[in-house]
Amino acid sequence: MSRAGLDAIFSPTSIAVIGASRHRAKIGYAVLRNLIVNEYQGTLYPVNPKATSIHGIRTYPSVLAIPDPVDLAIISVPAEVALAAVEECGKKGVPGLVVITAGFREVGGAGIEREERLLALCRQYRMTMIGPNCMGVINTDPEVRMDATFAPTPPLRGDISLVSQSGALGIAILDHAKSLGIGFAKFCSLGNKAQVSLNDLLAMWQGDEQTKTILAYIENFGNPVNFVRIARDVTKRKPIIAVKSGRSEAGSRAAVSHTGSLGGSDLAAEAVFNQTGVLRANSIEELFDDAMAFSLQPLPRGNRVAVVSDAGGPAIMCVDELVAQGLRLAELDAGTVEFMRTWAPPEASLRNPIDLTPQASLDDYRRALDAVLRDEAVDAAIAIYVPPVRVDEVEVARAIWQTAAQRGKPVLCNFLGRTEESPGFAELVKHSVPSYLFPESAARALGGMYRYATYRAREDGETRTFPVDRRRAAGVLRRAQDEGRARLRDAEALDVLDAYGIRIARSRFVADVDTLPAAAKDIGYPVVLKATGPGLVHKTDLRAVILDVRTENDLLQGATQVRDRLREARTAFDGYVVQEFVRGGKEVILGMTRDKVYGPFLVFGLGGIYVEYLKDVAFGLPPLTDRDARRMIESIRTYPLLEGVRGEPPSDVDALVDAVLRLSQLVLDFESIQEIDLNPVVALRRGDGYRAVDARIVLGPDVKPPHPPGPEEGAHSSIQTPSGSTT
Ligand code: ADP
Ligand code: MG
Question: Which DSSP state fits 619?
Fold first, then answer.
């Protein structure tokens, strides 16, 4: 894939349509026709061995017979002959391909192999290819005017570019957008993404002058790590609004079979969006709502919104949604309110939200909207209008867009009950005021704009590389791998963390009771006593954790109790851990799971043992910057608890940020680590750091098969461990 190749695809000076046809039912017919009727500005070469001319244009038997250079070849011949056609393109030196032909990876079996051969040809001849199994590409630039799709109608010209992993959905989006009056700069249906990916398109459109807003229909991110890197850069310059399907498990499975590649967990997707500033629309409808807002209006400077309405109900609905979106009702300046009082109907309510009532004249409405937009305390306005029968809605629309155009602040409109077919709606959109059927939609779209504006304004932060003892960690991991153990022993897990500078509670592991007192003395009372062993997972459930042990006597008694309890529960263990008793902190969890598709992602949450029930966690995809780590921590609902409520001291969030970053480094350094679960980490008050008191590290499935336990395992415990290996 090369940039020049992509340019050849989107701005070709000549196109060969391979598989051009006279038969209306053929895709090759529609593609050539679309290119012609939409006035493609370059030269067209239909290719078809059985025709001398199609649509009145001279036709060539093969791309090799074309006397001039060809920038782009559009392939729509059947799969069986597609490879031969592609090879000819290679020989001809065609830099760009759009392969519409289906019958590749998506059909499995022989299709997979066919796709590999296709890709090999592209590599061999250095061709850039979109598809296969796609619906084509569009560029509405007047210098190009290329509609190389088989869609029924071309899009309007505009400054949105759309990339879609589903061709059909992409075309439907273009179609509906047209009815809304929304125009496009470029469109790309990705198909199987055998070569050109979503990420390539984003990278290209980042620098595309004609593209102001990017819309994407995503089924999977391909390479999520690349996506994060690229999308993060793109969103600094222009918004990306994306619909990601496959939210449900069933949906993900469908997405897998749909494009022949793996989907991924939606939680990870959510993390990707949060970290890149890509705005997620939850439905195609929301995608349109956002597209309208972003492409027509400026971004808000802040979150203070004024609502101007001629009815109370919809204004209240609007306010509820505004607040849910993290926006605020603007506190209008007293002068603004006074000014409105001089002419507004006496029934009107002039505090934000402003309800002028149906008694208000069109002029009142116009003046009210203008007054709030002039107010320094207002960053954006939502104009709600329930068109009464006696007023011409086009006049109302005109009043709104004319007023909006003057103040440089975003104005979104809700013409209650009016869809895109209504003249008022059309008048508004034509003059760059997005209009919505319902007030909540306007509020939600504005919320998206505000979120994006804040995202763009924020600093990225830095990624840090800590000096760590990588070799020590590697040694521990290798030993476990060599011994075929997927789960590290507790002592090993703490050792790995310690090597990466993650602060752990001081701990001594002892195999037998005789050495317990010395260990405890070494740590210093009060201590915590726990059983440890490869088969022990939920120690508390087995009552194998004793907190706040103050004397040697208690310690030894505790050890006996723990041993008896485990014996009763028929659970093997092979020793004890004596740990510093960490007091006066808040329990948080910090962890990592490695997703098949997304790679490692980190999890942070508050709550210790309740975390599974509260489900209040945040995700982050390494590599994280310090800001990412902080945002991750701050984004959980219960974050205020870490800041300290009811006079509690604030927790050491800086130290937690440091821990997240070190964990990020650890999981990037060792791909063999499949899962890390630090539960809990006790966050102490600011300045005192934190201590991890319990750690579980699991290695990936590529560890060697387990072998019988070595002589050292279970040998010195009074209770035999069943085997050294666990999962
Ligand atoms: P498990 O999760 O297997 O039940 P833990 O080691 O996490 O066992 O211990 C259970 C609970 O005991 C922790 O969630 C924490 O509340 C508390 N705890 C464990 N170790 C310590 C310690 N060193 N200092 C203070 N509290 C601890
Ligand atoms: Mg625990």
Answer: E
The pLDDT tens digits for 333-362 are 999 999 999 999 999 999 999 999 988 899
Q: Are 68 and 43 in contact (CB under 8 A)?
A: yes
Phi-psi group of 167: left, alpha or beta (phi > 0 → left; psi -120 to 50 → alpha; rest → beta): alpha
Q: Which of 245-254, 261-270, 480-489 has the highest mean pLDDT?
A: 480-489
User: How far apart are the CA of 191 and the centre of ligand 2, in A?
Assistant: 46
- Site of tokens 């598989």: 19
Rounded alpha-carbon distances, angstroms, from residue 721 to 470, 490, 567, 574: 31, 15, 11, 6
> Other CB atoms closer than 10 Å to residue 33's CB: what's the count?
18
Distance (Å, rounded) from C-alpha 62 to C-alpha 470? Answer: 59
223 band by pLDDT with thresholds 50, 70 and 90: confident
CA nearest to 285, candidates 427, 455, 456, 420:
420
Asked if 222 contacts 261 with a C-beta cutoff of 8 angstroms, the reply is yes
Residue type, 674: Q
Q: Percentage of the chain with pLDDT > 70?
A: 92
DSSP state letters, 41-76: SSEEEEE-TT-SEETTEE-BSSGGG-SS--SEEEE-
| Ligand 2 centroid to residue 475 C-alpha, Å | 25
Q: 681: exposed, middle or buried (C-beta count within 10 Å: 0-12, 13-18, 19+)?
A: buried
Contact assessment for residue 555 and residue 503, using Cβ atoms and an 8 Å cutoff: no
Q: Mutate which of 490, 530, 571, 693 to test ligand 1's pocket (most atoms within 8 Å of Cβ)?
A: 693
Ligand positioned closest to the Cα atom of 693:
1
Ligand with minimal distance to 586 CA: 1
Answer yes or no: is pLDDT of 709 > 60: no
Q: Is the pLDDT of residue 609 over 70?
A: no
Nearest to 205 by CA among 164, 166, 163, 167: 163
